[in-house]
Amino acid sequence: MTTKATRTTDAAKPAGKDPVDAITAQWAEVRPDLDTAPMAVFGRVYRVARAMGDRIEKAYDRFGIARGEFDVLATLRRSGEPYTLSPRQLSATLMLTTGGMTGRLDKLERAGLLSRSPDPHDRRGLRVTLSERGLAIVDEAVVAGLEIQHEALEGLREDQVEQLQELLRLLLAGSTRD
Amino acid sequence: MTTKATRTTDAAKPAGKDPVDAITAQWAEVRPDLDTAPMAVFGRVYRVARAMGDRIEKAYDRFGIARGEFDVLATLRRSGEPYTLSPRQLSATLMLTTGGMTGRLDKLERAGLLSRSPDPHDRRGLRVTLSERGLAIVDEAVVAGLEIQHEALEGLREDQVEQLQELLRLLLAGSTRD
DNA sequence: GGCAAGTAGCTTACTCGTAAGCTACTTGCC
DNA sequence: GGCAAGTAGCTTACGAGTAAGCTACTTGCC
Fold first, then answer.
1. Cβ contact B70:B113 at 8 Å
2. What is the share, in percent, of chain B residues with pLDDT greater than 90?
3. A102 lies in a domain?
4. How far does the CA of B121 sit from the C1' of D30, in Å?
5. Residue B102 has what pLDDT?
6. A73 in Cβ contact with A137 (< 8 Å)
7. Residue of least CA–C1' distance to D18
8. For residue range A112-128, what is the model confidence (pLDDT) as tens digits?
């Protein structure tokens, strides 16, 4: 299945030029000594992340939550019943400072999507629990988000998605090792 | 990386589990009705973007610039001599509001890496020009950044990088169309 | 030529994140 | 048991972005 576009810049593969091609071409012109291949890879990664982040943010709008707030609800949701975690677990999972988590929890608690209660076993700690409304909203929102993501993958065949998956796994490993 | 996580070519799902696998597995448990494949793709994209952003930010530290500031300098640099663009062109290219661009230019001008001068043909406008120091710094910083990115790609063979490139091109197209 | 509409860049108010420091509580060691 | 060190969550100060509104200038149309 490897119809790989080995030849660098011929009329090889389907995809046309995109903004990242324009940028790397400009670099090649002014700094021909640089190997711009990595730039093209990560440039596209950044743009996909940003574009999809914006789209999904917009999809969550109608549920009255921002993306970071969805992430909190989703982390609680996927932890399973009783949908309870500590602020510490949440901030660790979401790679957020504890101060940032305090803010998100404040907003979500005010909106009635979760509640904070004292941890019965550790008086320093709290237990954050999804409310019924929070559960309902996250269960709808996750579907809405997946739909957006699914659409973005429509241009890829099944086997290409799998291939991409494997390559991204390697890329993530390389990007986070040490 | 460690030993031989590079046996990607066979039926065997090669690379070991990563945090994204854990998340999708959790979702599969509590919501077996969902197709979590898109989540796995974009989850890795987000994580790569964030991890590499952090690394590169750190690499630019020694040049005294933040990543967003590098982007401004880089846009000027790759535009070629005389390294001059308008704030409007910069904010459009970098997908930044004009207010945000004002702030970045303020910082960079204060640091002596660029200068603002009136546009001789349009008295509303400005021309932003890279200073000699700005040029020197961006030329060093771009190499430092590429080095980080190159390292992150070490776990991939040449042909895998090309394949990834093509797939990301499709993904970006799907993520930004409409 | 004159005026409405558009554009360039800056300012202001606000949001959401971090870093660092605080208090309260728990843990480990003697 | 008692105390130093560690941990949980909140607060404060700050940074960097957006959205919206401002002034100054340009453009297009009559």
1. no
2. 89
3. yes
4. 26
5. 97
6. yes
7. B97
8. 999 999 999 999 999 99
Number of domains in chain A: 1
Please state, rounded to an integer, the average pLDDT across all residues of chain B. Answer: 91
Query: Cα(A111)–Cα(B6) distance, rounded to whole angstroms?
Result: 47
**What distance in Å separates residue A164's CA from the closest CA in chain B?**
6
Residue B45 Cα distances to A45, A48, B13, B20, B69, angstroms: 6, 8, 19, 10, 23
Query: Shortest CB distance from B168 goes to which of A6, A41, A153?
Result: A41
**SS3 call for A99:** helix
Which of B29, B97, B165 to mutate to test binding with chain A, by most A CBs within 10 Å of its CB? B165
Q: Which domain holds residue B45?
A: 35-152
Say which CATH number the domain at A126 has. 1.10.10.10
- Looking at CA atoms only, how far is residue B76 from chain A in angstroms? 11
A84 assigned to some structural domain: yes
Mean pLDDT in residue range A64-82: 97
Omega prior to B82 cis, within 30 of 0: yes
- Type of residue numbered B17: K
**Do B15 and A166 count as a contact with CB atoms less than 8 A apart?**
yes
Residue B68, domain member (yes or no): yes
CB A88 within 8 Å of CB A77: no
Predicted pLDDT at A2: 40
In a domain, B103, yes or no: yes
